[in-house]
Amino acid sequence: MPHTILLIQPTTQSNSRTWSDYETQAASLDAICKIFETFARNKLPENAEFTFDINQVFEFLDKLTDISMMIFNAETAQYVPRNRSWIKQQLFEMFKSKCRHPEAGEKLIAGY
């Protein structure tokens, strides 16, 4: 998987913009889940058990002012931009692959 740059702007203030880079797209998706988990855990009592589903991650992403990725394309030697919708689809696929019975109508639950 190609090198990926994750761009996040949590608030409308331009100084809230951050970026981080990852060796793979999968690593950047894992990072998004870890960012969400940190955010959600900060709202819970200490040592509380924590699980989450894909809808909670999507709600978190929708509250961000902006989130996008730049994924390196080796054929063109350029970075390809990917938007929030694309990121959500990739996260859905990642959660689906981790779920034991995604076709049985279960909520997709994962912990990082």
From TrEMBL:
Alphabetized UniProt keyword annotations: Cell cycle
Q: Which residues, by range, are in coiled-coil regions? A: none
Q: Which regions span the lipid bilayer?
A: none
- What highest taxon heads this organism's lineage? Eukaryota
The UniProt function text for this chain reads: May have a role in the cell cycle.
What's the family?
Belongs to the E(R) family.
Which protein, by its recorded name, is this?
Answer: Enhancer of rudimentary homolog
Q: Which organism is this protein's natural source?
A: Caenorhabditis angaria
